[in-house]
Specification:
The protein has about 1250 residues and is of the alpha+beta class. It contains 32 helices and 34 strands. The protein has 6 domains: about 120 residues, Beta-Lactamase, CATH 3.30.450; about 110 residues, no CATH class; about 190 residues, Beta-Lactamase, CATH 3.30.450.40; about 120 residues, 2-Layer Sandwich (Beta-Lactamase); about 200 residues, Heat Shock Protein 90 (2-Layer Sandwich); about 140 residues, Response regulator (Rossmann fold, 3-Layer(aba) Sandwich). Keywords: Phosphoprotein.
Length: about 1250
């Protein structure tokens, strides 16, 4: 089967007539024209197809070949087959359906009236569907199917009579319809037709608002219903030859010998009776027993006739229908009289006459609902009875009270509580489940339907081994904790035990009973056993089991609540008893404590007192009177009489304490000096001292917040105050001694550095002067001796300066003024820089110095870390200095510096025998303070190994101590201040690390240490700056090494024959290269105008001379006053003033020191009394960290410490001027 889906033409839009306004928007019409005909037909739920009538214009008889089928038709493949091809069998003529040939002719025929393409007739019934057709421009025919509602016209059919069966009426109608259809098909078109049934009219009601959501749905058209006759249906099973498929029950009914019954043979039944019988048999609800067929009701169901008979008689007498709800009717089935309930309806049947011919009975079995309702009523009543129960004993009585409510489902009940045999009054509800069952007994709490003293209900029995079947059943229920069924037929319920019982309910004896073990829902122990008789007229089925389970559950839940309440009450009583005992015990303890406190107060070394809010002493102990001399007759004392017991200067203190306690109500204490004439405290030497007491007070407040009194105590603190004063005096003396010591060190350092600076500059001047001139003959020898003497002078200056620096460092360490300042740094660069400082010296002494990096640095990616570079450099300088000192005279001269790292712990591959020196103080939470960052903690290890003279075990024990050397000859042979290793150890421990050594005499030594630092990301070196003190230490170290290298080089390297010896200027240039200062850069600078402010005339002249030699124009001032006067003449104050580029300012000067002068200049800048920022460099011998910071805070731009060299000073001056110039350009 196929269906063409060729594209249909687009909708045709006819031009609008002139003068006719249809009110359509052009845009709406345009959108409407976009909709195609196939889209419209696919939305239709009716099966529809389209034909191209041009295919049928020439001749008829072509098969139906649709050009388009809508979705509804495509989904019904069977219907589509019936449209395209003929079915295998022709339709029944009685059905009214046309044949496929007629349907094909009707669908494809073209009208003979003019050029009209409309079809006639418009409808045709085919395949139980009503088909309609219409044509559209230009040649399309659209055919749709509709459901058919078939009915018979009442006006054309005679009413049925009692003698005419329904089959005859149907035959007559079918013949009539066949004849009419034949006439229609014989017409010109030979096409059968039938009118379309109109839509069912809906009743008209006033509009009703159904809500927002309901109104959104469009109204649906009423659909018609097609009434058909299924093939399997049996319309009339009483007919001689019924049509359809008979069920087993209908075949059974037809086999009954109805002729032998009062109803007579079936063929003689009237039409009305047959219709009623068919109606009854078609009713799906069962309403009668098969045994009732052809008999009276009182036959098979004689046991219930006494209840049903009166109802039937009343219905027959009155002719009114009768209805009974849930009527109890006993039925004998399953071998016993069963309790059942029915809802009946009795309808009299007149059969078209005036007398009752019979009754139509419709019965509904409501046994399950009725019995369930009765049982639920029992459970509700039982719950009400148990609701207000408070004790277990009362609970058992309420259970029996609730069970009495239902006579039918509880014909018999026995309730036994389970208790321990040792204590009959103790219920097992509170007993442990581990107690054996054989030691327990059952006590009768009550019964329902059983008289007291009956054989089935003993008052008490033990749950031990016995031959009694009932007791054995109770024991089994206790053991299994499951319901136990008792039956008369298996002997578990002896019939002899049931004699003499007046049965409740229907009065029938029970054949079965069940034992329910009752246990609370929150425990496992069985508290009671309930024996219930089973309703003799009901089977113990699943519904009965559910009822007993619900009953057991309800009793268990209520029992748990009662037990919880009883336990709570028991705990409450126990708590009350315990509280009473505790109260009695506390009373005794309170009395005992009171006596103890009274005795403690009497023997206490403290004076105790009680003062009322008016200031009157109410009560006091004996010690109070002894300490104060207060009158003992307290009743005669005046308020605040105790104030006279204090010295005059302490009275104000005491009153301040009083007001403080009154206002704040908080504990207060004061130290008060007393003037009791009976007390004379003395010190250890027997000398009299002041009498002091510590007064402590506490306000006593009532629960309402009112002030009740003040309690207080007096403690003699005379010796404590004396010791405190002695300690303060000694502390002041120690601080004064320390201050004088530091001041002495500072003065000594200052006074030593001042001449050292001049000596060093003069030595450089002598060396440079002699180097720049050429001497001949003896003069050349004299010049060389003078140059050597100048070098020796410079070396002595550096040696003396190193001693001063070590003394200052030790002073800082002793005063805890030296701190670690972490900054971003590259440890490898610092180590290489320290080695570069010694390169000229080791080359001059023939020492090979090597640098080794461990693989751990690359593995951990160590580059930039947070540490104190100046302290690391200071440690390395000390260790490398010692290595050079002790290696320079050895046959093998090699120094190796090795660097490694660890991320977990300082576990490095140390040489054999290496030991770390135990630290004096271990820093707590090192590297966690401010400035350390949050990077990973790294342990940086450094070793300095030499091939020097080595150390013995005795000599190693003296290392790292202050002013201690390996042996007395060490100082004589190698020199030194004996402070280097001590300082190194202190600096390492301050940095969170340890230092150690391994050495062998004659082989060499290895000094190693590690520092704690933190990893950080690489950054530009120019972004990080050291502290002023660190910069100063590093600069001074480099100056020292440069000078020492120059001196050593001049001593160790004689000039070669024929080659002029290197001049001191050349050596000086090498030193300047180490400081990253070039002569070319100096020559490029402009002319410098320098003001030297110095009170020391020697230093002033030497510095002025050297600056002039370097090409500077120098002015001088003796102190800060003259410096300010000179500033008034410069361009900073007047446009036509003298030039001034920079000021070199000493700090310690008479009349006005350099710091004060600098502050005044900065104040002038703030007041805009000078035209620009005045560059100032402090030239001072005070190079402590705090002194450098003080200089910076006073306004100094830079600080250079004495002694210094002219190249270093010039480099700092140019760097400062360049920085200020760059800042000025940025602003």
């Amino acid at each position: 089967m196929g269906c063409s889906h060729s594209k249909l033409p687009t909708p045709y839009s006819a031009p609008s007539d002139e003068g006719r306004n249809i009110g359509l928007d052009a845009a709406v019409v345009t959108r409407l024209n976009t909709c195609s005909l196939p889209q419209l037909l696919d939305q239709d739920e009716r099966p529809t197809f389209v034909l191209n009538m041009d295919d049928y214009a020439k001749e008829n008889g072509h098969p139906i070949r649709p050009m388009f089928c809508n979705k509804a038709l495509r989904e019904q493949e069977q219907l589509l087959d019936r449209v395209l091809t003929a079915p295998p069998h022709d339709p029944d003529p009685q059905s009214g359906n046309a044949k496929h040939e007629d349907f094909q002719t009707w669908a494809t025929v073209i009208s003979r009236y003019g050029d009209s393409r409309d079809i006639y007739p418009l409808t045709l019934q085919y395949n139980n569907l009503l088909w309609t057709a219409f044509s559209i421009y230009p040649n399309w025919r659209i055919i749709s199917a509709h459901e058919v509602f078939q009915t018979l016209d009442p006006a054309t059919i005679d009413p049925p009579s009692t003698s005419a069966p329904v089959s005859e009426i149907r035959t007559t109608k079918s013949a009539y319809e066949t004849e009419e259809r034949s006439k229609v098909l014989a017409s010109a078109a030979a096409i059968p037709t039938e009118e379309i049934l109109p839509d069912v009219q809906q009743p008209k009601f006033p509009p009703v608002f159904l809500g927002k959501d309901r109104d959104n749905f469009p109204p649906k058209r009423a659909s018609s219903v097609t009434l058909l006759t299924p093939d399997s249906c049996v319309p009339d099973w009483t007919a001689p030859h019924p049509k359809g498929v008979l069920s087993d029950h209908l075949r059974f009914v037809r086999q009954i010998d109805w002729a032998s019954t009062p109803l007579g043979p079936m063929e003689k039944w009237s039409l009305q009776f047959r219709e009623i019988v068919c109606l009854v048999m078609r009713n799906p609800h069962p309403s009668s027993h098969p045994a009732l067929m052809g008999t009276g009701f009182s036959g098979p169901f004689g046991e219930m006739w006494h209840k049903v008979g009166p109802i039937i008689r009343a219905c027959a007498r009155t002719g009114h229908s009768m209805l009974t709800h849930n009527q109890p009717l006993p039925i004998m089935r399953y071998g016993y009289m069963e309790e059942s309930f029915f809802t009946w309806s009795f309808v009299p049947v007149f059969g078209g006459t005036e007398r009752i011919l019979g009754f139509y009975l419709n019965a509904f079995d409501t046994t399950v609902e009725s019995i369930s309702s009765r049982r639920m009523g029992l459970l509700r009543y039982l719950g009400e009875c148990l609701n207000a129960t408070r004790t277990v004993k009362e609970f058992w009585g309420r259970v029996l009270e609730g069970l009495i409510h239902n006579d039918y489902d509880v014909p018999l009940a026995l309730l036994y509580s389970v208790s321990d045999s040792e204590d009959a009054d103790n219920s097992s509800c509170h007993s442990s489940n581990s107690i054996p069952i054989s030691t327990r007994s059952c006590i009768l709490e009550g019964s329902v339907g059983v008289p007291r003293g009956h054989a089935i209900s003993p008052e008490e029995f033990s749950l031990n081994k016995t031959d009694d079947p009932l007791i054995l059943a109770f024991i089994e229920a206790m053991q299994t904790v499951e319901p136990k069924m008792l039956e008369m037929k298996n002997g578990t319920l002896p019939e002899s035990l049931l004699e003499g019982i007046e049965w409740r309910g229907y009065g029938d004896p029970c054949r079965e009973a069940i034992i329910l073990p009752l246990r609370p829902t929150n425990a496992d122990n069985v508290c009671a056993l309930l024996l219930l008789g089973i309703n003799p007229r009901r089977a113990y089925d699943q519904e009965y089991r559910s009822f007993t389970a619900m009953l057991n559950r309800q009793i268990a839940t209520s029992l748990a609540s009662v037990l919880l309440f009883e336990d709570e009450m028991r705990r409450t009583r126990h708590a009350a008893q315990v509280a009473a005992l505790q109260q009695e015990s506390l009373s005794l303890q309170l009395q005992l404590q009171t006596n103890r406190m009274r005795r403690m107060t009497e023997f206490s070394p403290l004076g105790m007192f009680l003062v009322d809010p008016n200031g009157r002493v109410v009560e006091a102990n004996e010690r109070y009177f002894e300490m104060t001399g207060h009158p003992r007759d307290l009743d005669k004392t005046e308020p605040f009489s105790w104030l006279e017991l204090c010295q005059d200067r302490s009275k104000e203190v005491v009153m301040d304490m009083w007001y403080s306690m009154v206002e704040t109500r908080s504990p207060t204490s004061r130290e008060v000096q007393l003037n009791c004439s009976d007390v004379h405290p003395r010190d250890f030497n027997g000398e009299p001292i002041d009498y002091w007491a510590l007064v402590s007070g506490q306000a006593e407040i009532t629960p309402e917040g009112e002030l009740l009194s003040f309690m207080g105590s007096l403690a003699d603190i005379s010796h404590l105050k004396w010791a405190q004063g002695l300690q303060e005096r000694r502390l002041r003396e120690a601080e004064e001694s320390k201050r004088q010591q530091n001041e002495f060190i500072d003065i000594t350092s200052h006074e030593m550095r001042n001449p050292l600076s001049a000596i060093l500059i003069c030595a450089d001047d002598i060396r440079d002067t002699l180097t720049h001139h050429t001497f001949i003959g003896d003069d050349d020898s004299v010049a060389k001796e003078c140059i050597e003497a100048a070098n020796n002078i410079a070396l002595c200056v550096q040696h003396q300066k190193a001693i001063v620096d070590d003394i200052l460092t030790v002073s800082k360490l002793n005063s805890h003024l030296l701190h670690i300042t972490p900054v971003p740094a590259q440890p490898l660069i610092i180590v290489q820089r320290s080695m570069a400082m010694f390169r000229p010296e080791v080359q001059a002494k023939g020492i090979k110095i090597e640098f080794v990096t461990h693989d751990t640095l690359q593995h951990l990616g160590i580059d930039w870390v947070m540490l104190d570079p100046s302290r690391l450099l200071q440690i390395l300088v000390n260790l490398i200095t010692n290595a050079i000192k002790f290696t320079q005279n050895s046959p093998k001269r090699i120094i190796t510096v090795q660097v490694c790292a660890s991320a977990d712990n300082p576990d490095f591959n140390l040489p054999t025998g290496f030991q770390f020196i135990p630290p004096r103080n271990t820093p707590v939470n090192f590297a966690n303070g401010e400035g350390w960052g949050s990077g990973q903690l790294i342990y940086l290890g450094i070793e300095v190994q030499d091939t020097g003279v080595g150390l013995s075990s005795e000599e190693k024990a003296l290392l790292f101590e202050k002013f201690a050397q390996a042996s007395p000859r060490t100082h004589v042979e190698y020199g030194g201040s004996s402070l280097g290793l001590f300082i190194s150890r202190q600096l390492v421990e301050l940095h969170g690390g340890q230092i150690g050594v391994t050495s062998e005499a004659g082989v060499g030594s290895t000094f190693g240490f590690y520092l704690q630092c933190r990893r950080m990301l690489p950054k530009s070196h120019n972004q990080h700056h050291n502290s002023p003190e660190q910069s100063m230490v590093a600069k001074q170290a480099i100056i020292s090494r440069n000078t020492a290298s120059i001196v050593a080089e001049s001593k160790e390297k004689p000039s070669k024959p024929g080659v002029p010896p290197p001049t001191m200027r050349d050596k000086e240039e090498n030193a300047k290269e180490c400081m990253n200062t070039s002569t070319d850069e100096r020559n490029k600078d402009s002319l410098l105008h320098v003001l030297v402010v110095e009170d020391n005339m020697v230093n002033q002249k030497v510095l002025t001379k050297q600056l002039i030699k370097e090409g500077c124009i120098v002015s001088t001032a003796d102190n800060g006053v003259y410096a300010l006067q000179h500033l008034e003449k410069t361009r900073f104050r007047a446009t036509d003033g003298i030039p001034l580029t920079i000021i070199l300012m000493d700090c310690e000067m008479p009349e006005m020191d350099g710091l004060t002068c600098c502050r005044k200049i900065r104040e002038m800048e703030q007041r805009r009394e000078v035209t620009d920022h005045v560059p100032i460099i402090a030239v001072t011998a005070n190079i402590r960290g705090g002194q450098i910071e003080t200089a910076k805070e006073s306004g100094m731009d830079e600080v250079i410490g004495k002694p210094f060299r002219i190249p270093d000073l010039l480099a700092k001056m140019r760097a400062l001027l360049k920085r200020l110039e760059e800042k000025k350009e940025e602003d």
